[in-house]
Amino acid sequence: MEEAAKEFDWEELEWGERIASGAYGTVFLCRYCGKDVAVKVISAGEEDSCAVETAELSFLREVSTWVQLDHPNVAKLIEAKEDVKPPLKELKKSGCCCAVVREYLKGGTLASYVRHHKKLSFKHKIKLALDVARALSYLHSKNIVHRDVKLQNLMLDDKGRVKIIDFGGSKIETDEMSVKVGTKGYIAPEVLDSTSYDHSSVRCFQLRHLSLGALLSEAC
């Protein structure tokens, strides 16, 4: 988060174009204090109370997890706020939204990168794999399960370093988990069949390895 001495001023945020959309929100490229930032807007409209509650829970889960993290392979969280009203036509009917501001990673997603660079050297592949492994190892040290590790949630900065984003489905490993969260193709069998797992279970450790193996096999 931003240092307390320099409070984030939402009035200074310059909203820009939409650059991505996902299950938990829409991402916009914005400007703040002369720098590019990525802003994810989480909104479910005002009529569907169930969807609104789900969106709010996703926002709270993401922010409460992300604010604890500080690692070279984790995108930096800058600010977050509920009840934001973006001055954007595509969100006019959304009412108040939740917004998460993070550093802008100009290298794009790892999915896009490997699609446009089909002949990566073995050395380069190893570098990318180690970046991902370091991110997951760090989350493991914090007792955090991301639960949606995929190429679209891994991005590259301007130096080619991989950083993990999107903690809307994450969970602290304190309670038993069994809810199906994640993306088909990356989900471990334990999650697909709703088998419970917790931080003391070897299954929880295996979840990361299965997700890591799935995405590396796709990337390499």
UniProtKB/TrEMBL annotation:
User: Pfam families, from UniProt?
Assistant: Pkinase
One Gene Ontology term, aspect cellular component: plasma membrane
Cross-referenced InterPro entries: Kinase-like_dom_sf (IPR011009), Prot_kinase_dom (IPR000719), Ser/Thr_kinase_AS (IPR008271), Ser/Thr_Kinases-Pseudokinases (IPR051681)
Q: Name one GO molecular function term.
A: ATP binding
> Where does the Protein kinase domain lie?
13-212
Q: Any idea what this protein is called?
A: OLC1v1013296C1
Q: Which SMART domains match?
A: S_TKc
Q: Which Gene3D superfamilies match?
A: Phosphorylase Kinase, domain 1, Transferase(Phosphotransferase) domain 1
User: Species name for this entry?
Assistant: Oldenlandia corymbosa var. corymbosa
Query: Source taxonomy lineage?
Result: Eukaryota, Viridiplantae, Streptophyta, Embryophyta, Tracheophyta
